[in-house]
Amino acid sequence: MVEYERASANNLPTSALGHQFRDLTLLEAALTHPSSTNTAQADVRLRYQRLEFLGDAVWSLYVSDALVSLLPTASEGELTIRRARLVSGAALAEMAQLHGLAPLLLLSKGEELTGGRQKARVLSSAFEAVIGAIYLDDGVREIHNLAREACVKALSGEALDHDPKTALQQLAQSLLRATPRYRLVCRSGPPHAPTFEVEVVVERSPIAKGKGRSRQEAEQEAARAALRSLPDLVSTTSSSQV
C-alpha cells in the first residue's frame, strides 16, 4: 500500500488555481499524482494522465488566444515563440508554485522525500491536470483570466528595460481600453538640478509614480512602475467582471 503525504481525500481542498469546484472528484483526480498510486489503481493513474493531456491542449489554446489579443501586429513566428515560453515545463511549474498548487498534491512518501513538491516535472504536469479538471468543471473564465494574466506578466517584464512608455500604452489600450496620461506632481530641488515627480493615470485613476532629473525620465520611471503593477491591475479588473 502506497503511503500518502497528504493523508486522504478527507483533506481535499475545494478549489485550485482560483476555481471553486462543483465536481470535487475532478479536483481529486487532478491532484493525485501517479507516484501515489499502485498497480491496483491503474484507473486513477489513467484519469490523471487524461486530465494532464487535456489541460496541455486547453492551456495552449487560451495562451494563444491571449497573445493574439494582446499582440495584434505580431507575426505567426513571434506568437509561436512567445507561446512556447509560456507553455514550457518551467513556466508551468512556476505557475503551479505561484498559485499555491504544490501543497495540495497527493504524493507518495518516496516522491515527497526526494523533493517532489519542488520538481518542475511534477508541478508542470499537475498544473496541466488541474487546468484540464477546471475546463471539465466549466471553469473556462478562470482559465481565460489565468492565461491572460500570465501573458501580461511576461510582456510587462520584457518591456521594463526597453521602451516602457510605448509598452504601457500598447498594453493599457489592449487590456483596459484606455490610454495612459502623465501628470506632473511636483518639481523640487535647485534650478540647476531639479527633480521631477510624475504620476501615470489610467481612466482618471493614478496607478504609479516615478522620479527623475527630467520630466521625460520621470515619465519613463512611472511607466516602469506601472508595468510592474499592471498584472495585478488586470487581475482585479478581470475579477470584477466575473
Summarize the structure.
This protein is mainly alpha-helical and 242 residues long.
Task: Describe the 3D structure.
The protein is mainly alpha-helical and 242 residues long. It is 57% helix and 12% strand. It is built from nine helices and five strands. The strands form two sheets. Strands 3-4-5 form a three-stranded antiparallel β-sheet. Strands 1-2 form a two-stranded antiparallel sheet. A hairpin with a 2-residue loop joins strand 4 and strand 5. Helix 2 (42-70) crosses helix 6 (120-136), helix 7 packs antiparallel against helix 9 and helix 8 runs parallel beside helix 9. It is elongated and about 80 Å long.
Helix-strand layout with pairing:
Blueprint: E1 15-16, E2 19-20, H1 24-31, H2 42-70, H3 76-86, H4 89-98, H5 109-113, H6 120-136, H7 140-159, H8 164-176, E3 181-188, E4 195-202, E5 205-212, H9 215-240
Antiparallel strand pairs: 1-2, 3-4, 4-5
Helix pairs in contact: 1-6, 2-3, 2-6, 2-7, 4-6, 7-8, 7-9, 8-9
Helix content: 55-70%
How many H/I helices? 9
Taking pLDDT < 50 over at least 5 consecutive residues as the criterion, the unreliable ranges are 1-9
CATH architecture of the largest domain: Orthogonal Bundle
Cα Rg: 22 Å
Shape: elongated
Tally of structural domains = 2
